[in-house]
Structures
1.
Amino acid sequence: MDRVCVIGAGSSGIAACQVLSARGIEYDCYETGSEIGGNWRYLNDNGMSSAYRSLHINTSRQMMEFKSFPMPAHLPVYPSHFQIAEYFDDFVKHHGFRDRIRFRTEVTGVSVASGGYSVTTRDRDTGEEVSGTYRSAIVANGHHWSPRMPEPAFPGSFDGEELHAHFYKTPERFADKKVLVLGIGNSACDIAVESSRVSARTFLAMRRGAHIMPKYLFGMRPITSRPRRSPGSRRPGCRRCPSGRCCGWRAASSPTTACPSLRTASSPPTRRCPTTC
Ligand SMILES: Cc1cc2nc3c(=O)[nH]c(=O)nc-3n(C[C@H](O)[C@H](O)[C@H](O)COP(=O)(O)OP(=O)(O)OC[C@H]3O[C@@H](n4cnc5c(N)ncnc54)[C@H](O)[C@@H]3O)c2cc1C
Ligand SMILES: NC(=O)c1ccc[n+]([C@@H]2O[C@H](COP(=O)([O-])OP(=O)(O)OC[C@H]3O[C@@H](n4cnc5c(N)ncnc54)[C@H](OP(=O)(O)O)[C@@H]3O)[C@@H](O)[C@H]2O)c1
């Protein structure tokens, strides 16, 4: 009853396992697939991964890596799903808790029991169902595996092939066809680019606009990277801001220009000045 149950061994589940291991809390982790990684395991035999063949992360490695186990230096700033899955494997190996994960075991039910939760699991190979009681259950089962089609369905009829992005893997199926990609999320943009290389024509339709951000600022700095300097540290050419109301530094070259991140009555102070520091 003192044990904790972790449901899923994707990136969220293995992060939970690592913290529980580090704190000496007993737990069991159940994973319906044969491997860890969830969405990042291409063609995962759990049948739930939305990863397509060309997928790379769009949050830079600095944003996505575990602090307790940074990504190896040889990985690019935006690794592929193959590299991310391997990194997750190495993370689990490094922290030594792979044997705490029960693979090919699906959690089929969680209900409140006296002092905790009753968790029912099903072995995918034998079909055997087992119930156990845990003091807590950490639900890390993901959510991107559940495709959501427009509701209500679009009026009229369509004779062509319809495909939700969740099931997209490679672009060959679009060869020489006229393709309409609906939406302006990351999936739509990636799929439209890949389709445009093989299709007769590709159209991208959206019901509202979106900002498309490059992966690198000025072709150099990953847009989602963490700030490189700690608050209060100084960029060469900056000097102490006399107001002391922003991060403390402003460009020496324009000492009289108001720092745009200064505190105003309607906006809270920013901790760092994005323009000069
Ligand atoms: C195409 C795509 C690209 C993405 N790109 C990025 C990105 O670049 N950066 C980023 O930060 N995020 C990205 N995401 C978000 C992505 O969801 C997260 O990166 C991450 O995969 C979430 O991890 P998770 O562990 O919560 O879920 P998942 O990765 O989905 O893992 C859930 C795990 O739970 C298991 N499971 C589910 N139900 C049960 C059950 N009943 N019993 C036992 N096990 C179960 C599954 O088998 C799976 O292994 C992307 C998502 C998609 C769809
Ligand atoms: N690493 C990568 O490169 C990568 C690649 C793919 C996905 N992802 C991640 O995966 C997650 C899901 O991304 P996603 O692009 O699949 O989904 P999403 O971000 O939810 O985008 C869905 C798009 O479809 C549109 N849409 C939904 N229902 C519609 C309807 N009925 N009619 C018209 N348009 C409709 C939405 O428009 P509205 O906004 O108007 O609803 C939106 O433009 C995100 O976190 C994303 O960052 C990452």
2.
Amino acid sequence: MMAAAVGTTLSVGSAISAGCKPGPVTLQKTMGVKLNSASRLSCFSGLKAISSVSGGQEASFLGSGSLAAIQRSFVAKAGERNQRSYMQLQSQASFKVAVLGAAGGIGQPLALLIKMSPLVSALHLYDIANVKGVAADLSHCNTPSQVLDFTGPSELASALKGVNVVVIPAGVPRKPGMTRDDLFSINAGIVKNLVEAAADNCPDAFIHIISNPINSTVPIAAEVLKKKGVYDPKKLFGVTTLDVVRANTFVAQKKNLKLIDVDVPVIGGHAGMTILPLLSKTRPSVTFTDEEVQELTVRIQNAGTEVVEAKAGDGSATLSMAYAAARFVESSLRALDGDTDVYECTYIESDVTDLPFFASRVKLGKKGVEAVITKDLQGLSEYEEKALETLKAELKGSIEKGIAFANKQPVAVA
Ligand SMILES: NC(=O)c1ccc[n+]([C@@H]2O[C@H](COP(=O)([O-])OP(=O)(O)OC[C@H]3O[C@@H](n4cnc5c(N)ncnc54)[C@H](O)[C@@H]3O)[C@@H](O)[C@H]2O)c1
């Protein structure tokens, strides 16, 4: 295991600048880096989701509410608006995050994005191979978190001790022609083992599952946690943020909208037709022809396959996935940190439908899911109602497959 030195300066501005609206708060840090919280920190809030579900025009990640929230989480915590030292800002970094599968296509860029978060004090990178170099490389970034590397099962417990958020992108990705379900035979066992270790070593942590097929791996994780006696359904999440990110991007392009204003809730699951973007709930309010609804829905559902085919055998989405996962991590950390205005779509144990697991928008708080936003599911279009009914059969099968797998596995009692 290698402990990497913590940097002594924070060049947040250089990492997060570009293309944002100037805002009212300009901060001068004593280390010589000018930090305009509104124009620069808000850029990093590209990782931030919608900040409110009540206002009709609230921007998804750059509206006034978002700006205020990002200022709270990145800057205001450090004290007053005027002069402040790096040490003050650094002292706010207080959460430990572990990435399991950190040397992979998603793991590496995800680790970089998490390393940029001033809310993180320690970043634990775990993989079965090749993680030392990734940690050494990342540790040179002058952001607050300490980077530690852990290789192989003998170091897994140490990687997880005291961690607040565990992110799991470990496993194999798709190749052309494969469905996410084709990954089940390998990834189910990987997720089972990693969640078992999380149950033993950080039972209170938020667990973010990225490894596919999420529709099954999240139920597997739930069963493992139950057997371990530490299951808290409010803290187990299937990361479906990429579906929202894609939906927002494609809708903005199609309707020529300002990207930062667009928010499309995506519900259901995370595979093919189980992914259901609720275009009728798009904010800002926009109308679609039947053809546009069909075209956009199918594109959002198949966007992962679009990347798999473009990569032609070299894996699936990694960079956009890392971006989406980092946004979900950042949202979780803000919620843990006491921000009361954090909303994300995620696949969780749920009773909003007759299925035991379902993705929908939730409010996140210090203890995980604070509320499920059922409003999104009311007043669906006829197309969405039909698609929701159709997806249930497939999603149900994937959930049952996961539960059956988990129940066949022995789980070591700690
Ligand atoms: N949720 C989503 O939206 C989404 C999107 C894209 C990909 N994915 C999934 O994410 C997973 C990872 O994709 P990738 O492109 O990073 O794959 P990758 O092959 O590039 O990386 C996977 C990493 O996991 C590691 N690994 C394998 N077994 C492990 C174990 N037992 N413990 C710890 N680490 C282990 C590998 O060594 C590798 O470094 C795949 O299952 C893929 O389907 C999910």
